[in-house]
Design a protein that fits this description.
Elements (H helix, E strand, L loop, with lengths): L1 H14 L10 H10 L79 H7 L196
Length: 317
């Protein structure tokens, strides 16, 4: 509350001075700080570091370039919000909602600041392109369908977060904790997951093409079945760097590791049946107890440095 009072005081002082125009709408900012709700608001570049906005309603708000460093945004509704280039460094976003706002009912939110804008963005999930989220707490956050293109999430915590269908191309998750996160059908091409923790994460149909997963912990990751009758959707690690990554106990049947770098990668006791490992580099990889039944290994480099001659893995590999 002290942060909110200070912010209101600072805003009042600003409005009383003759200053150059700012991008955000001062009345919208005042509404947010006083009432903790401002769906559709224009808050571009708003100065909100350390502000307490727990349970706030920012549905469809325009928060581009806003300063929300160390802000309390726990359980905040940011569905369909535009957070491009926003600074959320070290912010608390536990259980925040970044999904789409299709549930929106205007009667529930009288006095919407910009109804026309709100109606136009609700079909989309939150836009977090180039957002700064390093060290942010996103535990159990709903990021279903969010755009995380080039977002900076170094050392962020995303335990049990829902990242279903996110666009995380070129995003940086290095050192992040994604324990038990749901990454189903996420597009993570060229993303950086080096030294990240993905223990027990769901990565069914996830695209890690050309991603860096060096020293990442993927213990017990799995591709869940979309229905009981369907096999797990194949996960793609083609051309990815999995050097010294730990996939102990992983369940990734039909996964594709074509041309992946897997030097000293641990695959111990994992299920990689029918996986595609053509031209993968498995030099010094730990395959003890791994299930490679039906896996294709054509032209791959084996743990002993030899090149595999043939197609599918033999039983005694």
């Amino acid at each position: 509350m002290k942060f909110k009072i200070a912010a209101i005081a600072a805003l009042t002082a600003t409005l009383g001075c003759t200053l150059p125009a700012v991008a955000y709408n001062p009345e919208h900012l005042r509404q947010l700080l006083v009432h903790n709700t401002c769906p559709g608001c224009d808050l571009r570049g708003a100065p909100l570091p350390g502000v307490d906005l727990e349970d706030a309603n920012l549905l469809g708000a325009d928060l581009r370039r806003a300063n929300l460093r160390q802000a309390n945004l726990r359980k905040t509704n940011l569905a369909s919000a535009d957070l491009r280039n926003a600074d959320l460094t070290d912010a608390d976003l536990e259980k925040a909602n970044f999904g789409n706002g299709n549930f929106y009912d205007r009667d529930r939110f009288p006095g919407v600041a910009n109804a026309e804008r709100l109606d136009s963005v609700l079909k989309n999930a939150a836009d977090l392109r180039d957002a700064k989220l390093s060290f942010a707490n996103l535990d159990s956050a709903n990021l279903d369908g969010a755009n995380l293109y080039r977002a900076q999430l170094q050392n962020a915590t995303l335990r049990k977060a829902d990242l279903l269908r996110v666009n995380g191309v070129n995003a940086d998750f290095s050192g992040a904790d994604l324990t038990k996160a749901n990454l189903t059908a996420a597009s993570l091409r060229n993303a950086n997951f080096s030294s990240s923790n993905l223990t027990e994460a769901t990565i069914s149909g996830t695209f890690f093409l050309n991603a860096s997963l060096r020293n990442a912990n993927l213990t017990d990751v799995y591709g869940r079945r979309l229905t009981e009758r369907e096999p797990p959707a194949p996960t793609r690690f083609d051309f990815a760097d999995l050097t010294q990554a730990d996939l102990t106990g992983a369940s990734l049947p039909h996964a594709s590791f074509e041309s992946a770098t897997m030097r000293k990668t641990v695959l111990r006791d994992g299920n990689f049946s029918n996986a595609k490992l053509q031209e993968a580099n498995l030099f010094m990889a730990d395959l003890e107890g791994a299930n490679l039944d039906g896996a294709t290994l054509a032209d791959s480099i084996l743990p002993d440095g030899s090149i595999f001659q043939g197609d599918t893995a033999p039983n005694d590999l």
